[in-house]
Specification:
The chain is mainly β. The protein is 0% helix and 42% strand. It has no helices and 44 strands. It is globular, with a radius of gyration of 20 Å. The N and C termini lie far apart (64 Å). 58% of the residues are buried.
Length: 361
């Protein structure tokens, strides 16, 4: 019940805090219920939501309300410890029915469920309901569980039944592990009738079975769109960059999709619509399969730097279509600078100001 005037800042919440030593633990480090507070610049690490199933939010649990979660370091937390065959939801953070803004946080190396034969959902972040916004976060090396876990959904993000907005995030090195089934190494989107992914870098994520990058199912009935994302080398597993399952509508604009086994898959063309325009495909085994409509493709080279930004030799520069809702890139640089660029990064030419004596006057 904290109001927007409340601030929780600069704390260390760490080292085996636990919401429950049995079942039904919510928020190993911090629990926010119906709050609109600012939670900023805290370190939240090595906490556990629950010893037994279920457990929600190893680091943080946000229920209802809104507010701002900004500039926190949320690492090495766990939703559930030791609950064989049980469920753990949100290793780093779980959010239910909230319109919270989650911005500029490091969410890394969290685990949804550590037990064998268990089920882990949202290694980094789990969302159910509400309309949360995730902007400028580093979501890195999270996992649904250790080797032997049975089911894993969403190594970085699991977004369910919500209206999520993801913008300018780096989603990298996450894993959805499951010996029986796993979906969405980077992002899992399920039953989200409205979702937007813009200016995200989604790279080097992994899955045991289906959709190494982004998995979408039963979503987009109102609006499902992906624009200006850079999707690269999500290869472990099936190597699919964007996988669309049943009953979904997904519109893709101005994306870079590079070094995937398959760039875009429509696994249910009888019930799903997948349409892409101004995509730069490069180095994929197959750019897209049956049921994907792709128009106005942008030829390479992508010429990406090691951090997946554009180099001066990239043909992504100046070849995107303008989109009214996209006014910044992943770094906060204005977009467009002239004609917009394809992918998450808007290329900025370095400007060096010379002293007056060296200028040609």
């Amino acid at each position: 019940g904290l109001s927007a005037a409340a601030v929780v800042r600069g704390n260390v919440i760490a080292n085996n805090n636990r919401a429950s030593h049995v079942a039904n633990g919510d928020g190993g480090g911090l629990y926010l219920d119906g709050c609109y507070a600012t939670v900023a610049d805290n370190q939240v690490f090595n906490n556990i939501a629950s010893s037994e199933t279920p457990g929600y939010g190893g680091g943080l649990y946000v229920n209802d309300g809104g507010g701002l979660i900004q500039g926190n370091v949320i690492t090495n937390n766990m939703a559930v410890l030791g609950a064989e065959s049980g469920w753990g939801w949100g290793g780093g953070m779980a959010i239910s029915g909230s319109a919270v803004l989650v911005q500029d946080n490091l969410i890394a190396q969290n685990i949804a469920n550590s037990a064998p034969n268990a089920r882990g959902v949202g290694g980094g972040v789990y969302v159910w309901g509400g309309a949360p916004r995730f902007i400028g976060n580093q979501v890195l090396s999270n996992t649904t569980g250790d080797a032997g876990i049975a089911i894993g959904y969403g190594g970085g993000f699991d977004l369910g039944g919500a209206l999520p907005w993801l913008e300018g995030n780096t989603i990298m090195g996450n894993q959805a592990i499951g010996t029986d089934e796993s979906y969405g190494g980077g992002v899992y989107i399920g039953s989200c009738h409205y979702f937007t992914l813009t200016n995200n870098i989604i790279a080097r994520n992994a899955v045991s079975t289906t959709s190494s990058g982004v998995f979408i199912v039963g979503s987009g009935a109102i609006r499902g769109r992906m624009a200006h994302n850079t999707i690269v080398a999500n290869l472990t597993g099936d190597g699919v960059g964007v996988y669309v399952g049943t009953a979904s509508t997904v519109l893709l604009y101005n994306n870079i999709i590079v070094s995937q086994t398959v760039g875009v898959t429509n696994a249910a063309p009888s019930t799903s619509v997948v349409s892409a325009t101004h995509t730069l495909f490069e180095g994929n085994g197959l750019n897209y399969g049956v049921g994907v409509v792709s128009t106005n493709e942008v030829p390479g080279p992508a010429a990406l730097l090691a951090d997946y930004h554009l180099s001066s030799g990239s043909n992504a520069i100046g070849h995107a279509i303008p989109l009214a809702w996209v006014t910044r890139d992943i770094d906060g640089d204005p977009r467009p600078l002239g004609l917009p660029d394809v992918g998450a990064d808007e290329y900025v030419v370095a400007r060096i100001r010379l002293p007056l004596v060296l200028r040609n006057y």
